[in-house]
Amino acid sequence: MKKVAVDLHFLPCLEFFSAIIQAEEILISPSELYQRQSYLNRTRIRLANKIETLSVPIQGRRPRVPLSRVKIDYSQNWQKIHLRGIQSAYGKAPFYEFYFPYLEPIYLKEHASLWDLNYEMLTICLKLLKYSGKVTVCKNLDEEEFDLDLRGQISPSGTFLERNLYEPVPYTQLFGLDFEPNLSVIDILFCTGPEAKKLLLRSIKI
Prior knowledge:
Protein name: WbqC-like protein
Number of helices: 6
Number of domains: 1
Distance between the termini: 12 Å
Oligomer: single chain
InterPro entries: WbqC
Order of helices and strands: EHEEEHHHEEHH
Mean pLDDT: 94
Pfam families: WbqC
Helix content: 25-40%
Radius of gyration: 16 Å
Organism: Algoriphagus iocasae
Number of strands: 6
Shape: globular
Structural class: alpha/beta
């Protein structure tokens, strides 16, 4: 698989990465429209007693406008809430001290738009996963050629079981006896470190 077009999610889930990890090129665009009730501004982590959704608040109701025009609401204390949640969830994880310093500075910045935040988060996550392909920012994805179009496919509505992208491969998580699949990519990074990419490659549904 050479080129894959995707939505620019916030700290994407494992289904997202299993779908793109073998691609030679990932295509994204700031002109793609914001969708409510999507992964564009939320991700899921595992706390001691529950699965927690971390959401990035945005300004206004935000009808369908380009992601680059969606402004983050910095009047809310969401950055500290996220950082505190991540520390609570993964502070004792084997690779927390190694990977957290890459994420914290991104959280502490005020990004011009949701697009800018998500792009920086995706870039660092791909670096930590040792992704060997490239990311291309396109003006209009509808004018590009690609092998797989994943836009609009990976969403909180429905489950990964209904799609044909991700087959969970269990790894050791911090809390609970049962494996919780398809959390944020930071779950697999903090828990498995350098093994994360191998696990994602094994998670590709064929």
